[in-house]
Structures are given as C-alpha cells and as structure tokens.
Amino acid sequence: MAKLDLKSLSSWGWEFLLPLPLLGLAFWVGTGWASDRLLSNDYPTTEEVQADTEEVVRVSMQVTVINIEAEIHQSENFTEVQVNTANSALTELRFEFPVTEYRAIETAIAQELGLSIEAVRSLVRYRIDT
C-alpha cells in the first residue's frame, strides 16, 4: 500500500481539494436560505384570476343506441341509467339522475343523448328497486 504523505497530496492538488467540501456546504446553505426568502414572500398581483370550476366539456359523437336500462332507486331518490350502443369505440354509457318519475327520467335521458322523448320511450326499460 502506498504511503500517504504531503508530497503525494501536493501532486493531487490538495490545496484545491480540501476547500471543496466547505464550498459545497456554503453553496447548499446559501441557496437554501435564498430559496426560503424568495418563496416565503407575498408578491402582489395586479390582476385577479378567476377559475370557472363548473366548466363542462361536451363531446358530440354519433352513436347508435341499442337499448336503455333505467333502475329506479325509490328509497334513495335517484335513477341509474345504462345506455348500450352499437359504436365500436363506445359500447356503454352510465348516468345517474336525481329523479324517480318516468317523465323526468325520459326528459333527462333525451337531453343527455340528444334524442327525442319518443325515441327514448321506445328504447327504455325500467326496473324499480324499492
């Protein structure tokens, strides 16, 4: 094993290598302090930002409805609706409506699918869960 002495350290440039840990520590502490100062300050804004949380994205897609199954939960006062389609990309749609009356259910389905109420009446099958 080679002996570690001052001459071998000087060939490595120990004058340069010894202060590196101290410089790294000082840089780490300094950047941490600067980040803390910058991120903890409040910066006034000149404009108010308003977010629309009720934005609904509607995608219109042509689907062929095969049948509609509506399960009315009278005790919980809502209706689960399952729509089966012949479209290869979209085979099933599910909805929940906060209504239990037939006309209200048919109207909600017609609005959601963009169909006439007569078309919905001919396709829908009801199941009542008490």
A few lines on this structure:
With 130 residues, the protein is an alpha+beta fold. The protein has helices at residues 6-12, 14-17, 20-40, 102-113, 117-123; strands spanning 65-73, 78-85, 92-97, 124-129. A hairpin with a 6-residue loop joins strand 2 (78-85) and strand 3.
What attributes does this structure have?
Nucleotidyltransferase, domain 5; alpha+beta; elongated; 4-stranded mixed β-sheet; 130 residues; 4 strands
Rg over CA atoms: 35 Å
Structural class: alpha+beta
DSSP strand (E) fraction? 15-25%
The ordered H/E elements are HHHEEEHHE
Helix-residue proportion = 25-40%
Trace the largest sheet across and list its strands: 3-2-1-4
Q: Quick one: how many beta strands?
A: 4
CATH class of the domain at 65-129: Alpha Beta
CATH names the topology of the domain at 65-129 as Nucleotidyltransferase, domain 5
Global geometry: elongated
Average pLDDT, all residues? 83
Distance between the termini: 88 Å
Stretches where pLDDT falls below 50 for ≥5 residues?
Answer: none
> What is the number of helices?
5
So, CATH architecture of the domain at 65-129? 2-Layer Sandwich
For the report, how would you describe the main beta sheet?
A: 4 strands, mixed
What does this structure look like?
The structure is a single chain. Strand 2 (78-85) and strand 3 (92-97) form a beta hairpin. Helix content is 39%, strand content 22%. Strands 3-2-1-4 form a four-stranded mixed β-sheet. The protein is elongated, with a radius of gyration of 35 Å. Helix 4 packs across helix 5 (117-123). By secondary structure, the chain is α+β, with helices and mostly antiparallel strands. The protein has a domain at 65-129: Nucleotidyltransferase, domain 5, CATH 3.30.420.
